[in-house]
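anyone seen this seq b4? input:
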Amino acid sequence: MAMRQLTSLDAQFLALETARQYGHVGGLAILDPATRDGALDLASVQQLLAERLPLVPPLRWRLAEVPLNLDYPYWVDDPYFDLEFHVREIALPAPGNENQLAEQAARIIARPLDRSRPLWELYLIQGLEDGHVAVLTKIHHAVVDGLSGAEIMAALLDLAPEGREVAESIPAAQRAPGSAEMLARGALGLLRAPVRFARSAPAALPNLAEVRSLAVMPGVGAISQLAEQTRRVALRKPARRRPSLPPAPRTPFSGRVSGHRRISFGQIGLGDVKAAKNRHGTTVNDVVVSICAGAVRRWLLEHDALPDGPLVAQIPISVRTEAQTGTYGNRIMLQAAPLFTDVADPVERLRRTHDALGDMKDRHRALPAELLQDANHFIPPAVFALAARSTFALATSTAGRPPWNLVISNVPGPQLPLYLAGARLVANYPISVITDGMGLNITVMSYDGHLDFGLVADRDQMPDVHLLIRWLRDEVALLTKE
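predicted toks r here
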């Protein structure tokens, strides 16, 4: 592969990584080996990965940093790629229940990835009490977003236990660039920086206030408003009404995260969620966000910490076009929507959620697709990491306000059975990222007639995050009861 430079958005996920907050996402797949001939062991998983590597080039990419951080890093093929390093096997002690699996997954997820190697790991976990086997994956967010991560899973999974033939072969690795070459690329990057800024400014400056992680910085709102007014005068257009969203209130999971995690996971029938959305005239996503609000409301009440107003949820939205399929990296917009934890009635909460998400979609359509990437071009790469961490530190300080309270992400998936090395995929629980100010992440992926919820929380802030799974199911039941 030719060297491939990270975008500013890809680089941001590296910049925000510290000893306390990691930048990798993952998934916990539950597999039934009864559909394959023989046990699902380490050798069979490594063989599958070796066969499919030509279909998933990012698994062979490693970082090549630019000296002095003069420009964004590059992806290069790892000439010493070692599959056995990345694919590992462990076993749970008896009885191997869900609590043990969640605890083991949390400990593995909390460990950073080795930046001198391709940024992913896979763990085959044996010893589950029901005879199933788990596969825990970790891959850095700088490599994939939700949709491109799903593309990698599609390359590894099959429609039948028999699998499929892969005719492609792995191309020879390119020569790794030397320090002098990377320094030269960095010098060229310095020359390109003003060009990036000039290209990004017209679309990004009027919309900077919509980037909530930047909006906490003093003066950003005024700059954005002035740029918007200037643009409107130049184009002779009337002022644009921007729907306002109240600031995020402080909650027990709004502070600095520790380096430790809690993970919880569970399934909800897609038929039950569709019944709720049909009954109330909304969408599946409306129901998902609304039941999340209901479950988080119960947790806040349980801990005597329910704010008077709604929380603010970060909802990632893909802006990946069909032409960008297979390009990996990040093509997302981080939208904000009210989470009506202040509304007790589940039907009224769903109605308000439906209206609020409609407003969010209107805001999303009015924004340039590359806004996050363009906004990052205003920060020189040499101070990019420091600026990103400083923004988060301000948002979580005593004087600051967090831009969001938590993440809620809903990723559509296939509605038919899939197989990994012949073993049927029973569930595919996503495991995502928490950061300072957002100590809770709820990500859901639909698969084969159910919704698979993966919850990640800071271990100190929400040691009892597992309670949310039961409450999510209770909230669906309230929306469907006669």
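The chain has two domains: 4-156, 261-413+434-480. The radius of gyration is 23 Å. kinda curious what u guys think
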